[in-house]
UniProtKB/TrEMBL annotation:
Its main location: membrane. It comes from the Bacteria. CDD domains: SLC5sbd (cd10322). It is found in: Membrane. The keyword Repeat does not apply. It is a multi-pass membrane protein. Belongs to the sodium:solute symporter (SSF) (TC 2.A.21) family. PROSITE patterns: NA_SOLUT_SYMP_3. Keywords: Membrane, Transmembrane, Transmembrane helix, Transport. The chain crosses the membrane at residues 6-27, 39-59, 71-96, 123-140, 152-175, 187-207, 219-243, 264-284, 296-322, 356-378, 384-404, 411-430, 436-457. This is Sodium:solute symporter. PANTHER family: SODIUM-SOLUTE SYMPORTER-RELATED (PTHR48086:SF7), SODIUM/PROLINE SYMPORTER-RELATED (PTHR48086).
Length: 470
């Protein structure tokens, strides 16, 4: 089937954008201070919490990279496997959520500082900003793909428009408005995908026709990938989710533990619907449009279906992208404000000053994200890189805070440094040997360093503690 632009679909995206901007402006008037801006006044009920968790986690990484690119490039089974790390991560967070709320911190860096000291907070802030700006950047490019598909404008121009929308929605009302737009977007996602799956299978001629039109390797368990290469795609999302500051902030923003638990259960159920749906749609797209960019597989199906269904799917795709982008942008700006500005530049900053500085950082980081996306060839490549920088540099150290009482500052800080350094060495210096993503090396290195250094320095840590007490 020939891929042709259908500008009429742009109306659906336009309506979605107008509604989101309107909600953002309305909710921004309810922002009472910096805590309200960052944690929505700790007022999120289970319904809104479920929607914002879902919308934040499922973004361009899923519809332009993740499940979409995996299904198109390697087949249905490897793509379906990408759901497993997410489900495991949600279950672990369900257990950890009460502890996260008990800390009551704005950032993951704040949690790390309480266990490992100020140095860990500084390192964590740099890692989070580095990773999150990367994540925001490929949301912008994903929006560019959408406008390229619907109107024929260049991906670059569409990326610029996406950048403007993402920056505006993050800046205008913080989590107070982002959580509301996320909730609406989350349910739009579920509805759009549920309608699309049977429709695109009918258009593609059914399962047997789809299978006949894809490479034979696409029906194997690994899609032609080695086991170690497949693990390189599965592990990054797990280790990002387990330590993801965005999720921690949202769980801390809930009304209480009961609302938090209900919201997470709803998130788990929604992911069981969404993730396989994306995989199936992209797999059908491989049969219909074998020569397109893998990142456009899901969005390309919008022009093959009736306009109403295609438009709903495209609006859902836009919602995936925008909600994830503004959430990670807000979170990164929070680190700059509370971990760097308030600690080192202006310790006496008023609440109002912190609020406006956060907004300023949102704009600055948004512009940086727009600039760096041009340095990565595909959404999937920057996704894996950003996930691993965070997953190896932050997650082992932060999980140890909750699950290993003996862990000390030397172990935690060493683990963070080892995770980032091994990621950069593998990806940049060595050029990703054997086409294996760095997570396969970086996460084990970070965990081993955490354990070994902690055990080797326990004696000295106790002595230091005694001296401090005396």
């Amino acid at each position: 089937m020939e891929l042709q632009q259908d500008p009429t679909l742009l109306w659906f995206i336009g309506i979605y954008a107008i509604v989101m901007i309107g909600i953002g402006i309305f909710m921004s008037k309810k922002v009472a201070g910096s805590e309200d801006f960052v944690l929505a006044g700790k007022s999120l009920g289970p319904f809104v919490l479920m929607g914002t968790l879902l919308a934040t986690w499922t973004g361009s990484g899923s519809i332009s990279g993740g499940e979409t690119s995996m299904a198109f490039s390697y087949g249905i089974l490897p793509s379906l496997m990408l759901m497993v790390p997410t489900l495991v991560g949600i279950i672990v967070l369900y257990v950890v959520a009460p502890k996260i709320r008990k800390f009551g911190k704005f950032t993951v860096s704040g949690i790390l500082e309480e266990k490992y000291g100020r140095t860990s907070r500084n390192i964590a802030s740099v890692i989070i900003i580095l990773a999150y700006v990367g994540i925001v950047s490929y949301q912008m490019k994903g929006f560019g793909f959408i406008l390229n598909l619907t109107t024929g404008m260049t991906v670059g121009t569409g990326t610029l428009i996406g950048a403007g929308l993402i920056i505006f929605l993050a800046m205008i009302g913080g989590l107070r408005s982002v959580s509301q737009t996320d909730a609406i977007s989350g349910f739009l996602m579920v509805g759009g995908l549920v309608i699309t799956v049977p429709t695109i299978f009918i258009v593609a001629g059914g399962w047997d026709e789809i299978v006949a039109n894809v490479p034979q390797s696409h029906m194997s368990a690994t899609g032609g990938l080695t086991t170690i290469q497949l693990l390189g795609y599965l592990l990054p999302s797990l280790f990002l989710l387990l330590g993801d500051q965005n999720m921690y902030q949202r769980l801390a923003s809930s009304k209480g533990d009961k609302a938090s638990k209900r919201g997470q259960i709803g998130w788990l159920i929604a992911m069981i619907i969404i993730s396989p749906s994306i995989s199936l749609i992209a797999f059908a797209s491989r049969s219909l449009f074998p020569n397109i960019d893998p990142g456009m597989a899901l969005m390309a199906t919008t022009v093959a279906m009736p306009v109403a269904i295609g438009g709903i799917l495209l609006a859902a795709a836009a919602s995936f992208i925008v909600t994830t982008g503004n959430s990670y942008l807000l979170s990164a700006a929070t680190n700059l404000t509370y971990d760097i500005y308030s600690n080192y530049i202006n310790k006496e900053a008023s609440d109002e000053k912190q609020l406006w500085i956060t907004r300023l950082f949102i704009v600055a980081l948004g512009v940086l994200a727009y600039i760096i996306i041009s340095y990565f060839p595909t959404v999937l490549s920057v996704q894996m890189y950003a996930y691993t920088v965070y997953g190896a540099g932050i997650t082992p150290a932060v999980l140890a805070v909750f699950f290993w009482k003996k862990v000390n500052a030397a172990g935690g800080i060493s683990s963070m440094a080892a995770g980032v350094i091994s990621t950069l060495l593998w990806e940049i210096v060595l050029g990703k040997p054997f086409e294996v993503n760095s997570v396969v090396v970086a996460v084990p290195v970070a965990i081993i360093v955490l354990i070994v250094v902690t055990l080797m320095t326990q004696g000295s840590s106790r002595k230091d503690a005694v001296k401090t007490t005396v």
